[in-house]
Structures
1.
Amino acid sequence: MSRARELITGRSPAFWILLALGLLALVAAWISIRGALAYVHLRAARSSVADVKQALRDDDLPAARQVLASMGADTRAARGLTGDPVWVTVSSLPFLGDMPAAVRDVATATDLAVREVGPPAMAAYEKLAPSTLIDGNGRIDLARVAAATPDVRRASAAAERARSVADGTGGALLAPVRTAVRRAQAQVGQLADALAAARTAVEVSPTMLGIDGERRYLVAVQNPAEARGTGGLLGAYAVATVRNGAVSVSKIGSNSDLDDATAPVVDLGADFADLYGNDPGLWANANLSPHFPYA
């Protein structure tokens, strides 16, 4: 032990400096090589997105699932390459760890989007595909909508987790890495927004489509000949009747068929009245406000 201690303590400062530089070079090489490999896997996964979309357009779900599985293998590899102890340790360093942390976050968010969002989203798509969702009479199968709801919820929750990881990325980044991060944030954000909208749709559509009894809706067709808050004035209208997923049109007409009022029929508050007065009592002015619930 004393001899070993002498060998260690007897080294010159230059030795320790060279040793430290050597270790830094090894770490840099490790990060660079594994980062390059992760990039290759992420690029391969990104290039397969178009194939998934095409398979779904062709209503070829087995092919879409096969491509998704290949994408999952790539994103899992990229996440593994950027999640080892050396990479995690370097990522925790102030400033120097910003770029490794950003690459790791992008790989993690992409992997979540593919392997945790993809399978339940595919399962929901299978239930909600137009070819099976709508029968020959145009009736929407509400039982299939209900069956798809848990899958859509799982996919939406996973997409939000992916967005949280992607949006947490930042720091001092070189331009190529910053561009890749922003692209990933935008794409994951779009996916999360789309699935949030899909979740709302499957949750409210059974009731809106008359699963609990008949529903009637006013369909307003806007004419852009005059500007209004929501796009144009009401020119034509229809009354749609919905029961248990079956939609029928019970009436069609123009705004001249509708009775105007001398004042708004709903009190929307003093601010609304100050802005628009009694004008919204006329059907042609019902949508003066750009706030859709008011219109």
2.
Amino acid sequence: MAKPANNLNLSEQTNVDVCTGDVAESSRKVSLTLFTVPKPFGVNEHIDRIQRNAIRSWLAISSDVSVLMLGDERGVADAAAELGATHIGGLAYNEQGTPLVSSAFELARQHANSELLMYCNADVILLKDLMSSIEMIRRDDSIDSFVAFGRRTDIDLRESLRFDQLRDIERLMRLASNQGRIASQVCKEYFVFSRKLFQQMPPFAIGRGNWDNWIIHHAKSMNIPVINISDLVTVLHQNHDYIHTGAGRMKCYVSGDEAKRNQELGGGRHLISGSVGTLRLTKNGIRPERPLLINPAFWADVPRFVRLMSNLLFSR
């Protein structure tokens, strides 16, 4: 069981109600197409449960959210029909049989019905404060195209939840507050971005290291605003093992052939550049991100990064 997160109080970290999405001032409604590449269903009961929890939570965010489940892995089409998401086949894979990030982004762009897209890993629970925070960004007339990202909180969740039940959401928030652990900013589970971005991407392998850092690094190199929305958005990663990769976490994300190939394709690991935005969303609006040497959020993340590397080295 994870140790309690330091100073984590999800009910107070934002001016957005995580259950209703209400904010202090009225929001301009936006639509969002959320897409993911799930693992196969019907192989691992825990993976099935956490993926269903994740998809249910996304569909409960707003009627303005569409969910695309990509790929032809076992059970994905049936799960999409069961949950009320849209299944999209035809995903491209590399020689090792791993889905390609570039193919997922292109399929999402082809089938999206919105100007904003969001990639998210299929083990992550999102709540209504996501849309309210995106609406805050859209109210800022100085921001056109952008990329948004943020940190996650790791939780051990072993039950199925219904996100139309306030009781289930309240139980989830208590679990996150009491036992959740904030992960390093290096661990990026999602990206919200303008549809016209990332039309040309290297053939990165999904679920392997280094491509997520490239997303942030590349956007910054193109002078695209990169907004850290960690302070206002609840992102709950449901812990699981890494048996599906055929290797431990270290090999999957750092030392494995596909992780190394991702690094080559991206021109490096970009650990720092790929984990620090140019702007930060706060309850008072969008503010410039502070330089690293005087950035409290960066220094607070150093122990988390050290813990992450220790876990990668010694976990399987």
